[in-house]
Design a protein that fits this description.
By secondary structure, the protein is α+β, with helices and mostly antiparallel strands. It has one domain. It is 72% helix and 12% strand. The protein contains four helices and two strands. The chain is globular. It starts with a strand and ends with a helix.
Length: 83
């Protein structure tokens, strides 16, 4: 069984945080949690399953922007694995 993993750099997370800070503070906070986890290595990694769980949680809490982001990341993890 192959684990499908999505990776994003600390710098990319910082850019997204700055973008969402003005538009949606909740999303910026969620991205900030991932950013903190990326500090040691400079890259944040999460499995596709973890992203889908995060999307489900976002749906239940009514955070549509966050659901779209993590769902897109899950799709990327899937497509990158197929290459």
């Amino acid at each position: 069984m192959v684990k499908r993993v999505f990776r994003i750099s600390k710098d990319d997370l910082e850019t997204m945080i700055q973008t969402y800070k003005q538009e949606n503070a909740t999303v910026a906070t969620m991205l900030g949690q991932y950013w903190k986890k990326s500090l040691r290595t400079g890259i944040f990694e999460i499995t596709r399953t973890g992203l889908l769980r995060e999307a489900t949680r976002a749906t239940k809490n009514g955070i549509e922007d966050w659901r779209q982001i993590v769902s897109n990341w899950a799709d990327l993890a899937e497509s990158l694995d197929a290459q």
